[in-house]
Amino acid sequence: MDDKLMLMIPGPTPVPETALLALAKHPIGHRTSEFSNLIGEMTQNLKWLHQTQSDVMMLTTSGTGAVEAGIINFLSLGDRILVGCNGKFGERWAEVGDAYGLNVERITAEWGQPLDTQQFAEKLTQDTEKQIKAVVVTHSETSTGVLNDLETISRLVKEHGEALMIVDAVTSLGAVNLPMDAWGLDVVASGSQKGYMIPPGLGFVAVSPKAWEAYKTAKLPRYYLDLGKYRKSAAKNTTPFTPPVNLMVALHATLGMMQAEGLESIFSRHQRLMNATRAAIKGLNMPLFAPDTNASPAITSVAPQGIEADPIRNLMKKRFDIALAGGQDHLKNKIFRIGHLGFVSDRDVLSAIASLEVVLQELGYEGFTPGSGVAAATRVFAQS
To answer: Where, per the database record, does this protein carry N6-(pyridoxal phosphate)lysine (predicted)?
Structure first.
């Protein structure tokens, strides 16, 4: 049946009808007072979402562009930085640092495992000459479903005194509690196609006063991603370059939806979806790729045994028009990933798990009792 595609991937995520209708409106001029008023409202709502009094800027770019901007605006050639690498995206930020001639030190963990905060503690404590200028960490590692202990790492960075805390919050913002000011985060980058509940195309970078001080002496090349330009424009409720007008109109709509739901309700909903999904996978006797202690409320990664991951994904798409994400790099065909962030409800998870049970039976997987996954998820929903 046409037009029944169900996205259960970590991005792009489902888009609510309110945002779809906003996208369908006739574009308005981006230099008009009407659009300027819209930017002013969104700026305040973005500060609310980030739990900050600092600047939050909107860029026409992907999440990768937002994180790159969050790195290059505050550093200079040869600066020493620590980058947490325990998945595809942590490694990407190390590669960005390499590309710009930074002195990158990787703190690594096996994919599927959280970063070891003690390794950060040792590096930062040993740096008595304060040569480390930044620490870059992916909060929710999209490639594995691991949630890193950002609060502890940020506390260690604050104790260091000199380094900036730069965060990839692409799949955590809007799904996980991320109090920028309370945790002392300096740069927080995210993308529109995740918790914001709109299509790809907008990136967001929140910047602390400490980071703006570093900006004054940073010498890495930048132009389109020069956050100083965006800051000056945002102060006048405008943009330095042509923005995706209708995406921003849609963002205005979804930020309103998020405020109506409330931060605590948003976070508890994502926690409930994660708990139900993980319970269901355990009920199907399939191994989870990330440990319970560091599981991301945005996405659940599954490492099936005795059956390959891609045939499961392919049949889910063909049979039920449900999209699941695959593994990346060395994890291709080894894991599949179930996204449950943004505009996702209890019903969506139950539909996906029920469909998964049918697919597993059709593929000859005999490691579970039919109905056990749905029953496990139902118990979680009934108790929460």
So the answer is: 194
